[in-house]
Design goal:
Elements (H helix, E strand, L loop, with lengths): L11 H17 L4 E6 L4 E5 L1 E2 L4 E2 L1 H11 L5 E7 L7 H11 L4 E5 L5 E6 L2
Parallel strand pairs: 5-6
Antiparallel strand pairs: 1-2, 1-5, 3-4, 6-7
Helix pairs in contact: 2-3
């Protein structure tokens, strides 16, 4: 399901995770940055992992960090990438922890929201 793409429709906490994802991408010099917010409001920020034996998208890494830290669900997720859409694998990772209605925000490298969809 597609959500509204207007920044004005996003709350401060959603804009915050987009900003955190963008900073992770820039700080780490990786293709993607991501951030997720759990049910308590804690945020987890990550970049793409590209090792010889392990490859995770930034959003998969952020979800894994949330799980490893004891999060029981997700309220929202954001990824900053040059990609035009969130991948099925990224949406599945968010859905596994947050459920099918969890919003996933995709922003370009400039921080502009490109798409807002649900994980389902």
């Amino acid at each position: 399901m597609t959500l509204s793409k207007e920044h004005g429709d996003l709350g401060a906490e959603d804009l915050k995770i987009i900003t955190l994802a963008r900073s992770a991408r820039a700080r780490n010099g990786v293709a993607e940055g991501a951030a997720v917010r759990d049910e308590t409001g804690r945020t987890y920020v990550a970049g793409t992992v590209e090792l010889e034996s392990l490859r995770l998208s930034a959003l998969q890494t952020a979800v894994a960090m949330a799980v490893a830290s004891g999060a029981e669900s997700l309220e929202a997720a954001a990824v900053v990438s040059a990609a035009e859409a969130a991948s099925d694998a990224d949406r599945a990772a968010v859905r596994d922890l947050g459920g099918p209605e969890t919003p996933v925000f995709l922003a370009g490298p400039d921080g502009q929201l490109r798409a807002a969809v649900t994980a389902g």
